[in-house]
Sequence to fold (200 residues):
Amino acid sequence: MSKGFPPSMSALIAELNKLPGIGPKSAQRLAFFILRGHISDARNLAESILKVKSSVRFCRLCSNLSDNDICEICSNVSRAKDILCVVENPNDVITIEKMGGYHGLYHVLLGALSPLDGIGPKDLRIDSLIERIGKESIKEVILATDSNTEGETTALYLSKILRNTGVKVTRIASGMPVGAKIEYADQATLMRAFEGRLPV
Fold:
């Protein structure tokens, strides 16, 4: 309980402090912001949180977040139905969509392979990925997992099991960010930049 605060305020601060990236001071500032605001703003915030918990689910096809059985991307008739981008989490879908250059479908694994943490193929949405490739007219699968150890392990595993499916399997390139100086790049990043080089 936060010292000097009424119990109700202490309870709010404690709940806000549970949010990722919110320390005790930030929790207090947010609590005071809510307290100073209009009662309708607090009600809208509370209702939005409850609605998310009761309404949001995973899309039946791709496991992206959705308010419906099938998400907006999967149900969008203008999307390219023969390209499937495999990502680790729904946040990755949002990031790629903001880029604006990809118009295919997605498949969200809901994690990455991590033997040290006990996360194996059965813990991810890999079986449903293989099932989709068998049922749908997929011509290319883009592996867009993270470039860390878990993401690379997942991409390597998927490339092996998808090798005999007849679909083209590609991996997103990674390397030097735009505007970066080569002298400041680490060796792994520079190596990936060279491996992902394109003709000019």
The chain has a mean pLDDT of 91.
